[in-house]
Inverse folding.
């Protein structure tokens, strides 16, 4: 395959499709979402067979259990994928919304209209449900999209692509509104992020290697959805019951997601009582603990954490634990070593919780809740493209609105500027 030529064709088709999608009515977009959901349910056996191929290869390549878990499709996850698309039908269509109107002294009326971004290139991990979610959100928000999922999910993504194309065509929308790149060659990513004539924005979802590549090579604007070095800080005024529940859920609910806690910070005044309770749960669940010297004094089985641990996203049953003197030291640690994704405080103290909200520089800042809640469904967006770790355009879980922008609109009656 001539990858440059192939990607140019993909880009050109996407640009043409984006113009049709921008003016597609809500009924047609909803019909496409329902038709894709129907096709996914009908083709469940085909999808499972394609996924089995991917799983066999991934196992042979020695993929970690948490990554296999994220790659695996089951009848239940297929049903959830279809249900997610049907739930998008019920979401209000953001395209064409108008508001903020003001009359100016000149007589013109100035306001705003919500519009699609155009063509969105999305590079993401080997998680097949993201293919359906991203396709659905881009369709509903009137965009065209070019999807590049992780290579481990290649066969399954191609099977989902067939359902998406069929659904678009059934609804009378251009099949190339959603294109899933048909090669796992990373040269295609290189083309995608430099085709500024065809692509309006790139959304990379991934870790450090992807960040480096995108930061170095992208010529298209980027909304980064990067790694999650998420923290929970247990304050000395925490409710111990809440602290234990949150420390357990934020780490062990699932190990691979970006909103999983990687570092637990504990106030020195409460550490000796709370840490043994939390450690008992981690031991039972097989979580390896790496701690600072003060942590090791309380938990002799914790291995010594290095400076590198504070900067590491394990995506695995491993946690780093640091005992801190106060809230300021906790926030300093988070703002220094975190990835500005999601961080939580456990405290019953109102003033400290307000200070944490104001001073922690992350896309989601939580009081007395698990970091695992940083998610589009959980925040009521219906679904999510991912969790933006950027500050510009969209921050945190990105849903339909994050895939649009606003243009100014002006109503006049023949006014001219003096
Ligand atoms: N903020 C968010 O919304 C989310 C963030 N993540 C983050 O993703 C990471 C885990 O997923 P993982 O699959 O390991 O992530 P990777 O970064 O390894 O892979 C993600 C995607 O990026 C591609 N990629 C990676 N490096 C390059 C490169 N140098 N050039 C071109 N393409 C590249 C991969 O392609 P290939 O298949 O070829 O490796 C894959 O499609 C974690 O850091 C997690 O926090 C995950 C989900 C959501
Ligand atoms: N929104 C997701 C997190 C996204 C994410 O990190 O995905 P992944 O790395 O594929 O497990 C959730 O909480 O389920």
């Amino acid at each position: 395959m001539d990858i440059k030529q192939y990607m140019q064709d993909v880009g050109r088709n996407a640009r043409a499709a984006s113009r049709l999608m921008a003016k597609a009515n809500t009924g047609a977009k909803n019909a496409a979402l329902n038709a894709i959901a129907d096709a996914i349910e009908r083709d469940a056996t085909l999808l499972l067979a394609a996924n089995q191929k991917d799983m066999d290869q991934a196992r042979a390549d020695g993929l970690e259990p948490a990554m296999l878990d994220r790659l695996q499709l089951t009848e239940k996850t297929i049903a959830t994928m279809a249900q997610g698309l049907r739930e998008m039908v019920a979401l209000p269509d953001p395209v064409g919304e108008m508001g903020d109107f003001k009359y100016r002294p000149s007589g013109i009326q100035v306001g705003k209209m919500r519009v699609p971004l155009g063509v969105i290139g999305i590079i993401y991990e080997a998680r097949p449900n993201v293919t359906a979610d991203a396709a659905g959100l881009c369709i509903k928000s009137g965009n065209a999209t070019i999807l590049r999922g992780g290579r481990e999910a290649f066969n399954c993504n191609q099977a989902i692509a067939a359902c998406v194309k069929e659904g678009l065509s059934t609804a009378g929308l251009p099949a190339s509104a959603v294109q899933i790149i048909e090669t796992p060659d990373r040269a295609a990513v290189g083309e995608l992020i430099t085709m500024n004539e065809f692509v309006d924005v790139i959304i990379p979802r991934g870790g450090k290697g992807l960040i480096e590549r995108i930061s170095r090579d992208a010529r298209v604007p980027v909304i980064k959805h990067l790694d999650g070095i998420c923290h929970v800080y247990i304050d000395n005024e925490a409710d111990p019951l809440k602290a234990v529940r949150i420390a357990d859920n934020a780490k062990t609910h699932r190990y691979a997601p970006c909103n999983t806690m990687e570092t637990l910070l504990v106030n020195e005044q409460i550490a000796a009582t709370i840490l043994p309770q939390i450690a008992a749960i981690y031991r039972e669940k097989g979580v390896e603990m790496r701690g600072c010297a003060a942590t090791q004094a309380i938990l002799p089985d914790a291995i010594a954490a290095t400076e590198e641990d504070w900067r590491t996203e394990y995506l695995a049953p491993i946690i780093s634990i640091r005992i801190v003197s106060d809230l300021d030291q906790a926030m300093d640690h988070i703002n220094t070593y975190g990835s500005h994704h999601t961080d939580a405080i456990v405290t019953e103290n109102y003033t400290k919780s307000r200070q944490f909200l104001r001073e922690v520089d992350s896309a989601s800042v939580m009081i007395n809740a698990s970091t695992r809640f940083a998610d589009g469904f959980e925040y009521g967006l219906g679904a999510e493209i991912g969790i933006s770790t950027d500050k510009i355009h969209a921050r945190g879980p990105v849903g339909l609105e994050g895939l649009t922008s606003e243009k100014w609109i002006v109503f006049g009656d023949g006014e001219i500027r003096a």
The longest strand covers residues 109-116. The pocket of NDP (ligand 1) is lined by residues 123-126, 148-151, 186, 189, 205-207, 209-210, 213, 225-228, 258, 313, 315, 386-387, 389 (CB under 6 Å). The CA atoms of residues 112 and 408 lie 4 Å apart. The chain has 15 helices and 16 strands.
